[in-house]
Structures are given as structure tokens and as C-alpha cells.
């Protein structure tokens, strides 16, 4: 007979990808029993080819391993400090890739699978969890990724009253604010309208002449596009979002009467000249360090995006926190649906991790599995765990997922989008470095390099303090 009493001494992890594998490892290493549920091989997905846990279905690269100058390299370093199984297995199966951490994908997955299989506190259940996890499972992590099976996705949709699962995720490029040339661009809302939480100057505006607009549209149409995968072709666009180049294909003037319309805006740098078209950027995070290009979701390949979008006046030197994309995805509107510990507000026994929460990339997914595992282990011990510092890569990514976005000023649009880790998610330095170690002044790109290095040093120091103050105390309790 099945008991209806919630089981809190055992944690159930649904999904054996990178996030689920990392979560199970962290929980078991905290001394808590784990059942890891993975439906493969009894039920395969469109993308997986093996039954191994943490199978890499796309690239074999974990991207840059430079902890001093790159945000994902910093995340690598933080995860190693936290005893990450994913990073341990990646390091043990590394293949040459310059400054990147790339792995032998089969060796990597085999190492993760063996470590979890051999752990005395981990049981691996090879069966699908069809629908919501049973009510008697009192401590659950759902980490089923972008290819979540239909029954579970539908159950989550019904529980959350959200329709944002299994759609084409249309993402516009996001630019670092400090790389925008404000001698060309300016702040203003259309007709100086003050929206919810707005000031009347909420957008950054980049003006175009007719010649610039004509060249821009031609470049959009000529740019190399990404093809859909076979299993994506029958998934509809989300909310009817069309790629910017598809809009351009519908007529040369379409963009000028859509996201690039110039009405209600006056260029303070040249107030007597009316722009032929205007590209707008909207604040993308609460810190105000990132801005997205409004209406510019795209299927252009990344190289083409950088080339084409840097022809926009004011964006010639743009640094992109992420480039645009359009692909099938499955993720929650996490800032609305999840609390600060990744628990579903509608049913707190369920915690989410990995790509479902709104992060992108192997390492990012695994890191959210890591912190979800630490939170679940703390719950199993009836303890509380303070969040990692927002100055760390892990803390800043968690902050983005659970509340780092801002509500969009337009009704009906969704502002929260998946994100890779990048320095734009970190709180700014209180004092930015201005001088080199030898006392001479930093110039040009040296300032950007020094700022990233200072952020990385701050992150690792703050993480070490957090580990000493919270995790070691919890482990000893």
C-alpha cells in the first residue's frame, strides 16, 4: 500500500541530464538518500542517442575555462570549489581545445554515470515519470530539460496555469549598455510615455537615415540563417513572434512600420532632422547593465548577427551578452513561478533545475542543478541555506532566474528569457579599477579587462566566505 505521507528523508530527482546528475551528486554527498529518475532507454528523446546520464546532445565544449577573464570560466572555478561532479568528470575527460574546456563526450557521460551508479546513497530508476511526481514525494527536483516529455510538460502547464512550455523561443540580441555609443544614441520613450515603473526615457534609440535603413534591410535578407532541426519544424512560433528577417521579407518598409518605426521620437543630438527609422533597445535586467534590441528575434547565424547589427548607428562597437535565436525550448517563467530557492510557488515540494528554469549552456544548467541540490539537501535536514552571494557567477545566474529580469512595459509580451552566464548579470564594482599594478592609467580595452578580472576576484573571495560560513556549518550539523 502506498503511503500518502510526504517523504522528506529521500529526495527524488527527475531527469538524468547535467542538472539532474549534478543535483543528485550534491544531495548524496550531503548524506541524503536520492532516487534519480531517468526515462531513457525505456523512452528516448528526439535528440539523445544513448542511455548514459549527462549525455551531451550538442557540442562537446564547456566553453572558456579562463576564470579571470570570462564569466563561464569563473562559473567553472566556482563549481570546482563546490565539489561539482560535472566539472570533475569534464576535467578527467578533457580534449585539446585551446583556452576552452572540451571533453570526450562518451568518456564524460560514462564517468558521470559510473560515479552516480557507484554512490551508496543514489538509486537510479530507469522509468518515465509521466505527469506530476506522486504526492507522497515531499522533496522533488524536476530537471527534465528542453525535451521534457509531453505528459510531464502538460502537468506542469496545468499546475502553473502557464502556456509557455514547448514553443519556439524567440530571443532578441542583448547588448552590454556600456558598449553603446551614447553620442549617437539617446534615451527616450515613444511620445515620452511613462509606462509602469517608467520615466518617459526608458529606451535607448539608434537613428537611421534612408540609406542606412536600405543597407540594413539588404544585409538582413542576405545574412546566413540557421535551419530548424527536424523535430522543431512542427512547433509553432511563440505568441506569433516573427524573426526580424522574416518581417523584412514581407516588404522593404515592413520594419519601418513595425519595431523600427521612427514616430514619437526626437534625436537630441540633431533635433531638426527626422530619422527615417529607429532601432530601440529596452532595459533587460534590474541592474540596468543589459539592453535587448526590441523586436529583433532572429534566425541569423551568430557571425551574421554581429556583422549586421553592428551596422546600426550607435552599436558599431556593441558587445553582445547574448545573440538572438529561435528554437524549440521548454522553460518556466521562473521569476513569476519560482521562489528564491527554485521551489514552485504553487507547490513548494517541487523544485526546478537546469534549462527549465531559464538558463542556457551545459555549465549553467549543471550549476543550477548544483544549487538546487544543496537547497534540497538543506530541506531534507530541516535547515535553511543562505543564497550564494549575488557577486558570484552562481549567485548572479540564480538571481537572473528568480528575479533579475524586469517586467516589460508592453502588455502581453514576455520579458524573461533564457540566458548564459555573463558579466552583465553581476552587480557593478563599487570602485572600478583605473590603474595598472605599476601605477600607470588603464586605457581603452585595458579598462574592460581589468573590470572583469576584478569581478572574478571578488566572486571567488565571496564564494569562499559563503562556503565557510554556510556549507561547512551545514555539513557539520
TrEMBL record:
It catalyses: uridine(54) in tRNA + (6R)-5,10-methylene-5,6,7,8-tetrahydrofolate + NADPH + H(+) = 5-methyluridine(54) in tRNA + (6S)-5,6,7,8-tetrahydrofolate + NADP(+); uridine(54) in tRNA + (6R)-5,10-methylene-5,6,7,8-tetrahydrofolate + NADH + H(+) = 5-methyluridine(54) in tRNA + (6S)-5,6,7,8-tetrahydrofolate + NAD(+). Residues 11-382 form the MnmG N-terminal domain. Its cofactor is FAD. The keyword Transferase applies. Its main location: cytoplasm. It is an enzyme of class 2 (transferase). Keywords: Cytoplasm, FAD, Flavoprotein, Methyltransferase, NAD, NADP, Transferase, tRNA processing. Its EC number is 2.1.1.74. GO terms for molecular function: flavin adenine dinucleotide binding; tRNA (uracil(54)-C5)-methyltransferase activity, 5,10-methylenetetrahydrofolate-dependent. Belongs to the MnmG family. TrmFO subfamily. PANTHER family: GLUCOSE INHIBITED DIVISION PROTEIN A, METHYLENETETRAHYDROFOLATE--TRNA-(URACIL-5-)-METHYLTRANSFERASE TRMFO. NAD-binding protein involved in the addition of a carboxymethylaminomethyl (cmnm) group at the wobble position (U34) of certain tRNAs, forming tRNA-cmnm(5)s(2)U34. This is Methylenetetrahydrofolate--tRNA-(uracil-5-)-methyltransferase TrmFO. It comes from Bradyrhizobium lablabi.
Amino acid at each position: 500500500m502506498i503511503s500518502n505521507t510526504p517523504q522528506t528523508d529521500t529526495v527524488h530527482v527527475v531527469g538524468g541530464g547535467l542538472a539532474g546528475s549534478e543535483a543528485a551528486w550534491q544531495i548524496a554527498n550531503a548524506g541524503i538518500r536520492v532516487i534519480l529518475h531517468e526515462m531513457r532507454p525505456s523512452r528516448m528523446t528526439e535528440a539523445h542517442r544513448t542511455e548514459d546520464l549527462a549525455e551531451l546532445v550538442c557540442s562537446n565544449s564547456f566553453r572558456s575555462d579562463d576564470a579571470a577573464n570570462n564569466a563561464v570560466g569563473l562559473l567553472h572555478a566556482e563549481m570546482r570549489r563546490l565539489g561539482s561532479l560535472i566539472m570533475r568528470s569534464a576535467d578527467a575527460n578533457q580534449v585539446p581545445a585551446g583556452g576552452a574546456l572540451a571533453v570526450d563526450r562518451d568518456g564524460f557521460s560514462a564517468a558521470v554515470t559510473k560515479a552516480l551508479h557507484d554512490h551508496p546513497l543514489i538509486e537510479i530508476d530507469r522509468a518515465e515519470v509521466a505527469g506530476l511526481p506522486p504526492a507522497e514525494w515531499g522533496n522533488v527536483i524536476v530537471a527534465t530539460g528542453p525535451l521534457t516529455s509531453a505528459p510531464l510538460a502538460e502537468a506542469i502547464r496545468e499546475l502553473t496555469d502557464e502556456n509557455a512550455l514547448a514553443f519556439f523561443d524567440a530571443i532578441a540580441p542583448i547588448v552590454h549598455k556600456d558598449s553603446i555609443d551614447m553620442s549617437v544614441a539617446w534615451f527616450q520613450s515613444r511620445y515620452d510615455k511613462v509606462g509602469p515603473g517608467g520615466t518617459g526615457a526608458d529606451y535607448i534609440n539608434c537613428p537611421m537615415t534612408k540609406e542606412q535603413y536600405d543597407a540594413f534591410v539588404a544585409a538582413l535578407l542576405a545574412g546566413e540563417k540557421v535551419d530548424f532541426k527536424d523535430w522543431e519544424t512542427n512547433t509553432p512560433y511563440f505568441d506569433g513572434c516573427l524573426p526580424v528577417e522574416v518581417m523584412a521579407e514581407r516588404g522593404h518598409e515592413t520594419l519601418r512600420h513595425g519595431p523600427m518605426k521612427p514616430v514619437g521620437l526626437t534625436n537630441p543630438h540633431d533635433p531638426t532632422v527626422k530619422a527615417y527609422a529607429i532601432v530601440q533597445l529596452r532595459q533587460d535586467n534590474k541592474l540596468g547593465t543589459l539592453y535587448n534590441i526590441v523586436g529583433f528575434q532572429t534566425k541569423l547565424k551568430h557571425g551574421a548577427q554581429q556583422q549586421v547589427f553592428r551596422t546600426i548607428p550607435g552599436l558599431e562597437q556593441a558587445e553582445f551578452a547574448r545573440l538572438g535565436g529561435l528554437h524549440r525550448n521548454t522553460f518556466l517563467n521562473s521569476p513569476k513561478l519560482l521562489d528564491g530557492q527554485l521551489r514552485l510557488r504553487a507547490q513548494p515540494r517541487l523544485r526546478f533545475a537546469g534549462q527549465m528554469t531559464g538558463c542556457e549552456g551545459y555549465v549553467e544548467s549543471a550549476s543550477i542543478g548544483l544549487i538546487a541540490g544543496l537547497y534540497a539537501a538543506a530541506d531534507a535536514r530541516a535547515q535553511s541555506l543562505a543564497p550564494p552571494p549575488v557577486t558570484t557567477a552562481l549567485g548572479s545566474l540564480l538571481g537572473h532566474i528568480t528575479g533579475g529580469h524586469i517586467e516589460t512595459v508592453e502588455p502581453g509580451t514576455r520579458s524573461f528569457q533564457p540566458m548564459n552566464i555573463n558579466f552583465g548579470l553581476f552587480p557593478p564594482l563599487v570602485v572600478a579599477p583605473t590603474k595598472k599594478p605599476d601605477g600607470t592609467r588603464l586605457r581603452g580595452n585595458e579598462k574592460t579587462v581589468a573590470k572583469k578580472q576584478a569581478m572574478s576576484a571578488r566572486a571567488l573571495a565571496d564564494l569562499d566566505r559563503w562556503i565557510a560560513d554556510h556549507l561547512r556549518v551545514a555539513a557539520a550539523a
